[in-house]
Amino acid sequence: MAEERAHRLGYFSSHRRYDDLTVAVKRFPSHATGPDFVLVHGIGVSSRYFHPTALELARFGTVWLVDLPGHGAAPDPQREVTIDDHARALNAFVSEMADPVLVGHSMGAQVVASVAEQFPDAGDHIVLMAPTMPPQYRSRATAIALLAKDLTREHSSVFGITSTDVVFRAGIPFTLRQLRHLVADRIEHRLPHIAANTLVIVGERDPIVPVAWARECAELAHAELAIVDGAHVIMHSAPIEVASLIARHAA
């Protein structure tokens, strides 16, 4: 249904190349005069699971959905891509905007945190949604087990989107290589150095990102914490509430 509504609303797709990395972009136009919202997905998947929230956010400003290099519609870079590599490509893209609001989910939160730390002029407001795993969960075996556990708590449409993206678009080998970079990243070392106004959002039933860890991340970043009903993919299961929180934070 979200896909059908997205096509009815109309969005514009393009690719942007920065050195040897390419991002795929969808732009949801808006008649509102609010900021540009840039939504960044998690590991192995694409921006498709952001569509419900994108549709809601389009009432407040132009929405950009980014497929990171090697994910979704973005071509395989044929090399290792670290969190900081993704961040440099994302920063190059948002440098074209006046004052975007960067919204990252899961691994995307790591990428957004990296942008905010390394490129403080990228934007004054960021949102870290389900900001990756706490230190005690950072092994590939644990991460895979928790991702599987989360799918039992999500709507069946989330399983369809994520499984299709991981298997047929990013590919399992690339996703596993990305997982190595995900578990090696230390977002807790970045958060105290972020100057942007930050909002942390987490689902109260998220098995991957416990509320206690999200609260710790918010404290490290001197950020506001919002807890919503849902598991890990809250922008798909609670789009109205999530979009409202993001818009209010941007305002």
Question: How would you characterize this protein structure?
Answer:
By secondary structure, this protein is α/β, with parallel strands linked by helices. It has a single domain (2-250), classed as Rossmann fold. Helix content is 43%, strand content 18%. The chain has helices at 2-9, 51-57, 83-94, 107-118, 140-151, 156-170, 172-184, 187-190, 211-220, 234-237, 239-250; strands at residues 12-18, 21-28, 37-40, 63-67, 101-105, 125-129, 197-203, 224-228. Strands 1-2-4-3-5-6-7-8 form an eight-stranded mixed sheet, with helices on both faces. Helix 4 (107-118) links the parallel strand 5 (101-105) and strand 6. Helix 2 (51-57) packs across helix 11 and helix 3 crosses helix 4 (107-118). The chain starts with a helix and ends with a helix. Residues 1-8 have low confidence and may be disordered.
